[in-house]
Amino acid sequence: MSYRDLREWLEQVDAMGELRTVPGCDWNLEIGALAEVAGRGRDAPAILFDDIKGYPKGHRVLVGMVESLKRAALTTNLPTDITRNEFIAAWRERLNNPKLIPPEYVDESPLYENVFTGKDIDVLSLPVPKWHDEDGGRYIGTAHVVMTQDPEEGWVNMGVYRTMVHEKDRLAVYISPGKHGRIHRQKAFDQNKPLKVAISFGQDPLLFLLGSRQIPWGDQELDYAGGIKGAPVDVIRGEFTGLPIPARAEIAIEGEIMPDETLPEGPFGEWPGYYASGSREEPVVHVKSLMYRNNPILTGSPPFRPLPGADGCASLIRAAFIWDSMEKAGVPDVTGVACYQNRFFTAVSIRQRYPGHAKQAALIASQNHTGAYLGRYVVVVDDDIDVADMNDVLWAMCTRCNPADSIDILRRTWSGPLDPIIPRDQKGHNSRAIIDACRPYEWIKDFPPVSGASPELKEEVLEKYGGYLKG
Question: How far apart are alpha carbons 171 and 263 in whole angstroms?
């Protein structure tokens, strides 16, 4: 099931029955609206837009890359019949025993089929959507990767930072405080130098997934990608920046972020479901080159109000990162992790071993690197609770949590401009509710037993009589 690039990935997704092609949409809001409607369903398909209004046939936009477990498995080199728990377990194994394979520089690339520099650059020759009604402009970067290099240490970071088009050769890249690309940018600006940047679109979806994860400082996402694929990622060296660019990407831009020039960026409809970050001045990216394949595909992952459930690819990988961090911090007997509402709500199950175990688990889950950014609630439950079932989690909260004794508040924790509850002039800090929804450890043996049939008996009667329940 291996693939070399987005086009081969699409062939396999189509063979799985999970790709839809939609002709004739307008780049102005229609693509975004259909992506939002289609994305609300469970296992929503990937959608390839073609014949986009005002653009030639073949200039396409793809959304919904990893919104099903099958496509997430295909993308991350796992069996496509994998279960939710097996997916998390596989990612935990990778985090504990990472295989790193550095990228390989190559001379040939289909990106060279169309190369533009100087006055010939026009990023709006591509069907860049306006995704949401109140967006401040057209956003070319929502499912892309941004390459930067640490000006002092030399390592290359690959991040996903939203990218707005101002003019045909002027962009604004918004990077939240604390992100590695933001630190690279500040280091360059402190030296009064621009930061060189390479941005690719329509690359291997695995690179988008890894670029949006928070791996340790100094580690390089391209090395992780090679390890997951079992072979080096082919890259070309950017002529202007010297940065690695995925050789089989659909589109690539090189440029530099200026320390002394800004333009308004935003608002933009973000993943919390609000235009929370508003509009502000952001450093300008001067585009020095634009490259793309014949019939290019621009990938998009426009954020909308968070989906219900905890089975999205990003939520599963985030759960694996949090689980791994908890175990490395010494929290024993973690039995499950689930992330709801993107980053806002984390549920953890444990097998209680000692007084304070639940509080320890909650604090570590809320303040490890993955869990710390823009969280809101962490709930810890016993191991008889299915953290992937929100109703089960709510039941534990309602029956095992005494609010006066079981809830603590952490203040001045890591937030950011996307947090809708924080006033715009105070962005940076929020608070966390730490909720112990476990049976009280002091009298756990005397806690009322759970009523109902045992799981074993339920399975037995369903096997015997379940056929009678079907219409």
Answer: 9
Do residues 432 and 378 lie in contact, with contact meaning Cβ atoms separated by under 8 Å? yes
Least Cα distance to 253 among 188, 172, 342, 369 occurs for 172
- 6 and 250 Cβ atoms separated by less than 8 Å: yes
Predicted TM-score (pTM) of the model is 0.85
CA distance to 160, 457, 471, per residue, from 468 (Å): 50, 17, 8
Residues 6+ apart with CB under 8 A from 166: 137, 172, 263, 284
User: Which contiguous run of DSSP H or E holds residue 13?
Assistant: helix 6-15
Q: Which amino acid is at 27?
A: W
- Give the E-state strand segments of 144-230 in sequence order: 144-149, 156-159, 163-167, 170-173, 195-201
pLDDT (tens place) for every residue of the chain, 471 residues total: 589 999 999 999 999 999 999 999 999 999 999 988 887 766 689 999 999 999 999 999 999 998 888 999 999 999 999 998 899 999 999 988 889 999 999 999 999 999 999 999 999 999 999 999 999 999 999 999 999 999 999 999 999 999 999 999 999 999 988 899 999 999 999 999 999 999 999 999 999 999 988 788 888 999 999 999 999 999 999 999 999 999 999 999 999 999 999 999 999 998 888 887 788 899 999 999 999 999 999 999 988 887 777 777 888 889 999 999 999 999 999 999 999 988 899 999 999 999 999 999 999 999 998 888 889 999 999 999 999 999 999 999 999 999 999 999 999 998 888 888 887 676 678 999 999 999 999 999 999 988 888 888 888 898 888 888 875
CA 5, chain centre distance (Å): 19
CA dihedral 389, 391, 392, 394 (to 10 degrees): 130
Tally of CA atoms within 13 A in the half-sphere of 416 that contains its CB: 17
Q: How far apart are CA 227 and CA 221, in angstroms?
A: 10
| Strand 244-246 to 280-292 pairing | unpaired
Q: Of 453, 217, 437, nearest to 347 (Cα)?
A: 437
Q: At residue 91, what are phi and psi to the nearest 5 degrees?
A: -70, -35
